[in-house]
Amino acid sequence: MVLGFGLVSLAVDAVSDGARPLAGPLLAQLGASALVVGLVTGAAEAAAQGLRLIFGPWADRTGKYWTFTIAGYALTVLCVPLLAVTPVAGAAGLVLASVLIIGDRVGKAVRSPAKTVLLASVAVPIGRGRGFAVHKSLDLAGAFAGPLIASAVIAATGSLWPAFAVLAVPGAFAMALLFRLRSRVSEPQRAAEHEVPEAPDTPGARGHADKPAERLSSVFLLFALSAFFWSAGLVAFGVIAFHLTAAVDVPVSAVPLVYAAAMAAAALGALASGYGYDRAGGAVLLVLPALVAVIPALAFSATMGPVLAGILVWGVATGIQDSTVKALVADLVAPARQGTAYGIFAAFEGGGALAGGALYGALYGSRPALIAAVAALQAVAMVLLVATVVRSRRRPGAEPGPGAQPGPEPE
Fold it and tell me: What is the mean pLDDT of residues 274-301?
């Protein structure tokens, strides 16, 4: 199942991430300023994370994990190719592009909690850190291939719109593969139900899924709060792409290549942190705020060398956030609550992403102020993350030392 969903994610990420590095240049061509680019891309990431607060509990209540998964993938597969029509949409082009860019990420919010519940369940025998890392690596292979496809099309045609149109091909393949997988695999809820602990004192064994927050442990909420602060400093790539084309004079056709390099770094970050998590537990995540803190100092330089280094660091941080972070969430929450937990956790990340988009857009012209603001946010994130790791190891059922797999905290 991990490999099956990984292959679907590979194809869909070729679509979504093929378009993602072009969001900034496209919006700029349609007349957007740096602030507008920051707000749109920040809102898109906020939608991708924050709306999971709705769709995570909804999936838990209905148990229709496949319905949410298919609907979310379909939304992305439709929105991205439609970006091809925005340059000919006249005055409405900027608004339409903004809606479609956000729509793509809404699709991410619809499908992610349901899909992640399944992955958390089936990855237990091989280790959740490893399971999420392997899945994320396949996912990032698509994120690497998509920008290469887009770059090749832009180089051949000299225009942005054909690059969006051609991404309909991997999108169609992804949907065909997803429906084939659906015909062979039972509802994910069954796997989750089989894992519900028998102990009556676990959060997942009491209450109902329509009460998403009241049964979640305090250490989980502490972890979610730390995610808000690191997400506020982890800039959306659209702003970096805007900087590449506006300040570093990088050709638009080269932006997807740079993004592909970031995705390769993300795959390495996911694998390294995932395998490290299975050995050392949540302490491996302490590197995340440190990575985020150095991104603006490098990525918004005036020369290509530091910018490229910053983009690679951004990729590593993104890979860790999208893989190993989810493994710790799964270990902090009972299986019957995981869809809800992923939704709430993503809402904190989404709120941080929206705040970060506005922050980067507003302080883009003042690099020292931007660096200082992000450093302050990551200092807070580090304190909260250290507290999360310490408290998770003190909970009943959590074994000290490397490889500990913490269980849900009793209320």
Answer: 91
The predicted-structure confidence for 71-85, as pLDDT tens digits, reads as follows 999 999 999 999 999
**Three-state DSSP string of the chain:** CHHHHHHHHHHHHHHHHHHHHHHHHHHHHCCCCHHHHHHHHHHHHHHHHHCHHHHHHHHHHHCCHHHHHHHHHHHHHHHHHHHHHHHHCHHHHHHHHHHHHHHHHHHHHHHHHHHHHHHHHHCHHHCHHHHHHHHHHHHHHHHHHHHHHHHHHHHHHCCCHHHHHHCHHHHHHHHHHHHHHHHHCCCHHHHHHHHCCCCCCCHHHCCCCCCCCCCCCHHHHHHHHHHHHHHHHCCCHHHHHHHHHHCCCCCHHHHHHHHHHHHHHHHHHHHHHHHHHHHHHHHHHHHHHHHHHHHHHHHCCCCHHHHHHHHHHHHHHHHHHCCHHHHHHHHHCCHHHHHHHHHHHHHHHHHHHHHHHHHHHHHCCCHHHHHHHHHHHHHHHHHHHHHHHHHHHHCCCCCCCCCCCCCCCCC
Tens of pLDDT, residue by residue over 308-361, are 999 999 999 998 988 888 888 888 888 777 778 888 888 888 788 888 888 887
Hey, what are 346's tokens? 């993503």
HSE, side-chain direction, 13 A CA sphere, residue 351: 12
Residue position matching structure tokens 């990431």? 45
Are 246 and 307 contacting, i.e. CB atoms less than 8 angstroms apart?
A: no
Other C-beta atoms lying within 10 Å of the C-beta of residue 126:
12
Maximum C-alpha span of the chain: 63
User: Which residues contact residue 3 at a Cβ distance below 8 angstroms, ignoring those fewer than 6 apart?
Assistant: 134, 138
| The residue to which tokens 């509990």 are assigned | 57
Burial string for 373-393 (b: 16+ CB within 10 Å, else e) reads bbbebbebbbebbbebbebbb
Q: Which of 34, 51, 156 is nearest to 102 (CA)?
A: 51
Tell me the one-letter amino acid at 204: G
Which whole-number Å values give the CA distances from 222 to 126, 175, 348, 387, in the listed order?
27, 37, 11, 8
The pLDDT value recorded for residue 402 is: 40
Type of residue numbered 297: A
Sign of the alpha-carbon dihedral angle for 327, 308, 168, 165: positive
Predicted local confidence at residue 102, as pLDDT: 94
Closest C-alpha to 2, from 140, 139, 197 = 139
Per the rule left: phi > 0, alpha: psi between -120 and 50, beta: everything else, 158 is left
